[in-house]
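Ticket #4471: structure output looks truncated?

Reporter: J.K.
Steps to reproduce: submitted the chain below (406 residues) through the standard prediction queue, then opened the result file.
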Amino acid sequence: MGAWFEYECIECRARWDPHLVLYQCPRCGGLLEIELDLEEVREKVDRGRWEREPLRVWKYRPLLPIEDEGKIVTLGEGGTPLYRCRRLEERWGIRGIYVKYEGANPTGSFKDRGMTVGVTRALELGARAVACASTGNTSASLAAYAAKAGLPCLVILPAGKVAMGKLAQALAYGARVVAIRGNFDRALSLVREMCEAGGAYLLNSVNPFRPQGQKTLAFEVIEQLDWRPPDRVVVPMGNCANIWAIYKGFLEFQRMDLIKEMPRMTGIQAEGAKPIVDAIKRGLDRFIPVENPETIATAIRIGNPVNGPKALRAIRNSGGTAESVTDEEIVEAQLLLARTEGIGVEPASAASLAGLKKLVEAGEVDRDEVVVCVATGNLMKDPEEIVRVAGAPLEVEVEEVRGILA
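Returned output as attached by the reporter:
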């Protein structure tokens, strides 16, 4: 191929010039993926050098589809901790439980991995502005990277459905934020129409360059586990790009003979927004959208995930599964993780842990497995909710303080 990467449609397998601005296949309308010439990539990979360098997204430059390194827009994303949760292992009787804590990224969520690549590609393609629809984390991340790149940024949000911590970030970074009376799916439809008509580069996860950055999470996990892949990776699913991206990262390492086994990709959705879970459990080739999704976990309150077809492939191709959890189970897991392991996550992140617990109890996860749960965002992304469920501070007279711990 002319370049060392191209667009490829996941449906009809048509390939397209990567210098075109495309968000879906011009032939059949299917979702696009970026496919690399892995033989060319293999020649540039130096595992020894990787092992000497600190973890960061751009250390994996040979596997990231950009052409001009001078245009890289970075805030130092990646290199997030992989915490071993020994107290949870003992509680649930599982050999290995790890949490990949994406809340340590610059804007506090996994979205930064995708935005560093997506905004860099926007500059390469000559974009004059960038735009997205969002339930919160995408807007915060895009606004930050657009500010770093000097690009105007438009964000469309569902009114009253975005956590204050995330909204505050988008506003602080200077994005033009517009709230509509409708849900996320309507916001995405609107911003896609605007971007396809020209004027801005769309950086929702339907843009196939964004998952290319998110796949580096898989690369980091492999290094952090001393080049031994986990048995299973559990991922919260909203718009479903992340589970696909992580699967793709493991797949590329496998195809380059850097690992032998593929982890079982396991997707978790909230009970009020679970089209992918329903499709997996019913054996359907396509999912049926949920018209009015509702959950406490705002980041995954999505009823018609644009990357749903990719999620179905990632789960099935890896021998994984999907499960749904109630809001009560999400909150329980959020507090459990904070109070047993000292890891604070937003509700959507806790869905992965809640799902693991449910699958263990159902006998669908072997107790001898090593499992990585992806925690997608920081606790401070959605502080109002945790204050509500954790309880207000105890108010006492000054002289009563000494007796509290007696």
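Triage note (M.O.): checked the attachment and the full token line is present. The mean pLDDT is 95.
Status: closed, working as intended.
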